[in-house]
Amino acid sequence: MEYARNVLGIADAEHEESSPGAPTVVISKLACSLVGKTQKITMALNSIAHRAYGGKEVMEEFFCNYGLNPIFRDQISKSKLNITGVDPEGEVRIVELFDHPFFVATLFPPQVASSLEAPTR
Q: What is the pTM of this model?
């Protein structure tokens, strides 16, 4: 929300979970809940996530019902917030700021599958 409001200039940007009747919902309820599902995520080459995982694809477990409203995908794509991870249908699952040392946002908690022996798997 911070990025949408202060960088993209969408002053009334809201999250549908906390503001269900808002006129400008940037984070909206997913058409199909991801709670309890595991999906393959394909990451952009040379992205922070790609480097962290050491590969192009990963399976991750989800616990969410909300994600980027598709209406705002083009606006996000044209900004410095890069879409770097997508599911098999091409839906956004990871975004990153390349000009920041480490800014990665995911729709899944990567730490769920990590361990001391395999921090990224």
A: 0.86
CATH class of the domain comprising 2-113: alpha beta
Say how many C-beta atoms besides its own lie within 10 A of residue 89's C-beta. 7
β-bridge partners, 43 = 85
Q: What are the residue boundaries of the structural domains of the chain, listed by start?
A: 2-113
Hey, how many other C-beta atoms are within 10 angstroms of the C-beta on 85? 27
Confidence at residue 37, expressed as pLDDT on a 0 to 100 scale? 84
DSSP secondary structure code for residue 73 in this structure: H
In our burial notation (b when 16+ CB lie closer than 10 A, e otherwise), range 53-63 reads beeeebebebe
What is the spatial distance between Cα 41 and Cα 91, in angstroms, rounded to a whole number?
10
